[in-house]
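Action item from last week, closing it out:
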Amino acid sequence: MSAVLKEDNSPVMAPHWKLSTSEYHRMIAAGILQEDDRIELIEGELIDMAPIGYQHAGLTNSLIEILGYPTRGRAIACVQNPIGIGSKSEPQPDFALLKPHPDGYKSRLPRAEDTLLIVEIADASLRYDREVKGPLYARAGIPEYWIVNISERTIEVHRLPDRQSGRYSDIHIASAGSVTPGAFPDVVINLSELLGQ
C-alpha cells in the first residue's frame, strides 16, 4: 500500500488503485508483466513472491509424488500455477489438487469452486500464508488449506471455511504421524516421509 508521512512521522494510508484480474491480464498481454515474473495478484495488489529455495523446491516435488500421483484420475495436481478467486485475486499456491476438468484447465484458469486442496510451503512467508492467504482462501470457500511450516517441521491443516469471517473453523497442527486430505481419505501422508523427521 502507498503511504505518506505525517509531521509526526507516522504513516497515513493514501488511496491507491486496485487492479482487477482482467487489468492484470492486460498488463501481461502488453508485456508490462512477464508470465514468468514471480508476482501474484492478491485483493487487487501485485505481490512479489519470495524466491524458491532448495527445501521449498524439494517439498513441492515430494507433494507431487505423495499427493499428485495417488489422486491421478480423481484430481489434477497444480503446481505454482494461478487460481482465479473473484475479480481481484489470482494466487499461485505452491501446490493444489483440483477437480477433474475435461480439458485439464487449458481453456480457462481453475477457480475456487474447482479447488479441493491448497498447500503453501512456508519459510519466510509463514505470517503472510496465515494472515493474508488463509483468509483469502476461507472467504473463497476453499474446503481445505495446508501450510507446510519448514522451520517448525509441521503441517497446519485448515478445514471448514467460514466465508463470512474469512477463517477456517477447524485448524490443527500435525507434528508427527500422518495427515489425510479430506477429499481423499485413502491418501495418507506420513509426516516423517514428507518433512524428513
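Closing note: The longest helix spans residues 54-68.
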